């Protein structure tokens, strides 16, 4: 319930009343010489209106508080395409409101993924090209008036056979004269996995996840900031793709399967059975991420290193470098390099074996997702950003272009041995 008070009297009327009262008080307590001699001198001459001083009029003062917030909006159009015949077009919009004096901020985003695919995995099952639309959005609010801050966030993502939502919170605490910041966070995710063109009420699986994060950011000196973060993610539920089927081989044929074996070879040598993918029902993920940012004269270097291991015995390393160069107050240009390496999960096989000739005996776990196998990805690219704002604040309006190319080597897989891809994004951001 919002309480309202009666409107205050006009400041102009209060000022006028005060002047009248002051003149009356002065007249009551003072006798002029002219009035004292009134009987002898007669009536005093009339005073001209022009000779009466006009009291100053007070200006009306607005009671509305000054708006110290910064409002920003961003529009982005990104496109991904690769040599496995997958294309993704993603328009998105972001908006944020920050009030530094009160320590509060609110941000949100919305995007649409338009996916078109005719990958080798689709072709190998005698399926044609398919298209799909995914929508996703989220909100995040932060309140940090002084050294202590709290953030809450939520997001939702929907596609024809998948529905996901997440909620989370984060606590931050500054100390050491705000040179150090401790972070503790928790997030919960709920995914509903379905089957294309089938209602969730007919077929669905639930996957739940919990994430615990701990981090520390340290200002090393006036030019350098470093941070480290530890994350634990626990997933429970069946994440197997119900439409992903796995070719099976006899032991003799499996030993002959070469890396990148063609669809024709697989079709000729596989066994008749083709079971659906089956993954373990739980997974624990552990990661440690370190970041370093250093400001040089005219440039900023950003480094990131992430180490990862999980209960499926996948071990991975991701290294990222971005060096941003300033050209005056209106241009930024940067190169970008990234390297990702990983081994395969402990149940990964290039060719899975049905071990009995008299009956079908399938491996307990099996997958056709090559992102769970051993691979290496090299990424290179860069971007440019132009600030278009007025001379006093050129960064109030900007346009940026990012382009990255990646090459992935699949070291132990059927159908393909490599994939090349390009990701580009055009971003327009401005203050309102």
Structural class: mainly beta
Quote the beta fraction. over 45%
Q: Which blocks of ≥5 consecutive residues have pLDDT under 50?
A: 1-50
Instruction: Outline the biggest β-sheet.
Output: 16 strands, antiparallel, barrel
Total count of helical runs of at least 4 residues: 6
Extended strand count? 18
How much is the average pLDDT? 87
> How far from one another are the termini?
31 Å
Q: Could you spell the SSE succession in H and E letters? A: HHHEEEHEEEEEEEHHEEEEEEEE
Radius of gyration: 35 Å
Strand order of the largest sheet: 1-2-3-4-5-6-7-8-9-11-12-13-14-16-17-18
Coarse shape: elongated
Helix content bin: 10-25%
List the quaternary state of the chains: single chain
Molecular structure report:
It is a single chain. 10% of the residues lie in helices and 51% in strands. With 432 residues, the protein is mainly beta. The strands form two sheets. The chain has a 16-stranded antiparallel β-barrel. The protein has a two-stranded parallel ribbon with strand order 10-15. A hairpin with a 4-residue loop joins strand 2 and strand 3 (104-117). Residues 1-50 have low confidence and may be disordered. It is built from six helices and 18 strands. Among the domains are: 11-43; 261-432, no CATH class. The protein starts with 10 loop residues before the first helix and ends with a strand. The protein has helices at residues 11-28, 33-36, 38-41, 120-124, 251-256, 263-269; strands spanning 70-82, 86-99, 104-117, 130-143, 148-159, 162-175, 180-193, 205-221, 224-236, 248-249, 282-296, 299-310, 315-327, 331-342, 352-353, 375-387, 397-410, 418-431. The longest helix is centred in the first third of the chain and has 18 residues, at 11-28.
């Amino acid at each position: 319930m919002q309480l309202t008070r009666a409107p205050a009297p006009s400041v102009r009327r209060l000022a006028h009343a005060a002047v009248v009262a002051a003149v009356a008080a002065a007249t009551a307590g003072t006798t002029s010489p002219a009035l004292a001699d009134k009987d002898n001198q007669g009536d005093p001459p009339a005073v001209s209106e022009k000779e009466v001083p006009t009291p100053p009029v007070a200006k009306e003062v607005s009671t509305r508080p000054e708006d110290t917030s910064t409002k920003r909006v961003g529009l982005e159009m990104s496109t991904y395409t690769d040599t496995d015949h997958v294309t993704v077009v993603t328009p998105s919009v972001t908006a944020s409101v920050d009030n530094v004096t009160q320590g509060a901020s609110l941000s949100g985003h919305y995007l649409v993924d338009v996916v078109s695919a005719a990958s080798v995995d689709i072709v190998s099952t005698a399926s044609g090209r398919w298209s799909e639309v995914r929508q996703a959005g989220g909100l995040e609010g932060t309140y940090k008036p002084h050294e202590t801050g709290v953030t809450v966030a939520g997001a939702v993502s929907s596609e024809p056979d998948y529905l996901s939502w997440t909620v989370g919170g984060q606590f931050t605490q500054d100390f050491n004269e705000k040179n150090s910041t401790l972070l503790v966070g928790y997030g919960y995710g709920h995914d509903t996995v379905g089957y294309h063109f089938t209602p969730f009420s007919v077929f669905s699986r639930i996957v739940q996840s919990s994430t615990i994060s701990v981090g520390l950011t340290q200002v090393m000196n006036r030019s350098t900031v470093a941070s480290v973060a530890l994350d634990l993610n626990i997933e429970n539920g069946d994440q197997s793709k119900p439409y992903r089927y796995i070719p099976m081989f006899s032991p003799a044929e499996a030993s002959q399967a070469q890396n990148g074996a063609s669809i024709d070879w697989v079709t000729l040598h596989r066994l008749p059975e083709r079971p659906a993918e089956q993954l373990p029902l739980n997974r624990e993920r552990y990661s440690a991420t370190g970041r370093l940012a250093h400001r040089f004269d005219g440039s900023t270097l950003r480094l990131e290193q992430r180490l990862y291991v999980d209960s499926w015995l996948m071990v991975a390393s991701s290294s990222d470098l971005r060096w941003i160069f300033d050209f005056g107050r209106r241009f930024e240009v940067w190169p970008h390099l990234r390297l990702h390496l990983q081994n395969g999960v402990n149940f990964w096989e290039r060719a899975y074996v049905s071990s009995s000739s008299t009956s079908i005996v399938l491996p307990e776990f099996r997958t056709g997702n090559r992102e769970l196998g051993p691979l290496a990805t090299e990424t290179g690219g860069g971007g440019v950003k132009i600030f278009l704002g007025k001379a006093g604040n050129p960064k109030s309006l900007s346009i940026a272009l990012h382009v990255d190319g990646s090459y992935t080597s699949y070291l132990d897989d059927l159908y393909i041995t490599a994939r090349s891809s390009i990701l580009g994004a055009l971003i327009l951001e401005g203050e309102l």
